[in-house]
Amino acid sequence: MNNTQIKIPMLDLKLEYDYMKGEIDSAIQKCLAHQRWVLGPEVGELEEKIADYLGAKHCMGVSSGTDALLLSLRALAIKTKGKEFFDKSDEIITTPFTFNATAGAILLAGATPVFVDIDAESYNISIAEIKRYLETGGLNVVGIMPVHIYGQACDMDEITRIAEERELFVVEDTAQAFGGKWKEQKLGTIGTAGCFSFFPSKNLGGFGDGGMVSTNDDEVASNVRMLLQHGGKSKHEINHIGYNARLDTFQAALLLVKLKYIDRFNEKRRAIAEMYSEGFKDVGSVITPTAVPEAFHVYHQYTVKIKNRDAANEYLNKNNVSNMVYYSLPLYRMKVFSDNCKIFGNNGLLENVEGACSSVLSLPMEPLQNEETTKTIIETLKRFVG
Ligand SMILES: *Cc1c(COP(=O)(O)O)cnc(C)c1O
Predict the structure, then answer these.
(1) What DSSP letter does each residue of 294-358 carry, written as one string?
(2) Is 321 in the pocket of ligand 1 (CB under 6 A)?
(3) 156-203: per-residue pLDDT in tens?
(4) pTM for the full model?
(5) Nearest CA to ligand 1 atom 7
């Protein structure tokens, strides 16, 4: 082991900045010249470009992925209930194997998250478990919130079918899957609303917080548009309990540059993932991600399942390979959720969620990472498993 060696990062944002430095710098200069910091021209331009890219009727820039989720849900409460917030008795089915903001947004919107188990291979919400919950009654369910975890699509055919049958809304948490697809459709455009995050580490990351809501529903769009600027169409006409949740001009300007590279970068992620999977092909104790054939996976994370995960994590760190555990704790074990959620499982246990939490490990996934680096990572993990 060589301690002077530089640790391979999960992501190298400095490298990405250098790669497009000229364009980034001139986008900043343009903002400095016009000084229109709040809802400047770049915000509308980004909304149009992303709507176009996704094939969505409307896109609204917001201040974070969390706000994208919250505002979508609030917009749906206003639309479907004629009320500002959901009631605690209103249930939204989601996964506990995600970042906390997914279910946090449900609580903020007034509803109750119902956590169901995930699929053991894709780590996405289990369609069978959604159905099983609805079959037990599930009369209070108002919507489903699938998360396209690690950049891979949930089965949107099944989710759409279930939702239509029960007249439920679907809010897609697309925070990890910008550019991902289910069959030919871009994620975030299949459900009632799609929610994106531009947090710097996301596959379309900005230079601070930011987010976007996409929808084909005119009323949801106009509600989100109001909610993000204090709840009204103008300063003197406030209809709803709103927020200051606008996307910054600066972020929009920088994201307009990064958007040009998103397809190229997603392809690079896919190539790195392929190299990893090839490298671990004959290593029985490293279970590589399952590629669902209908899903165009954008590998926000490349995540393996491995025995002795915590030891693997330590070994990689000691050998200068960054790695992360997403997620070590199911949301229902966090106090805010355990106090306010419903868990639907066998004897209260979500077996696949527990299994994933104790064995997943995400490896470095930097689109500009070279083959040499990917090889080093593969070899290091192979040395660990022996
Ligand atoms: C990052 C993330 C969010 C929250 O996005 P922010 O922009 O950080 O608020 C929500 N859901 C998932 C699945 C995420 O990965």
Answers:
(1) TEE---SSEEEEETTHHHHHHHHHHTTB--B-TTSS-GGGSHHHHTT-EE-SBTTB-HHHHHHHH
(2) no
(3) 999 999 999 999 999 999 999 999 999 999 999 999 999 999 999 999
(4) 0.97
(5) 65
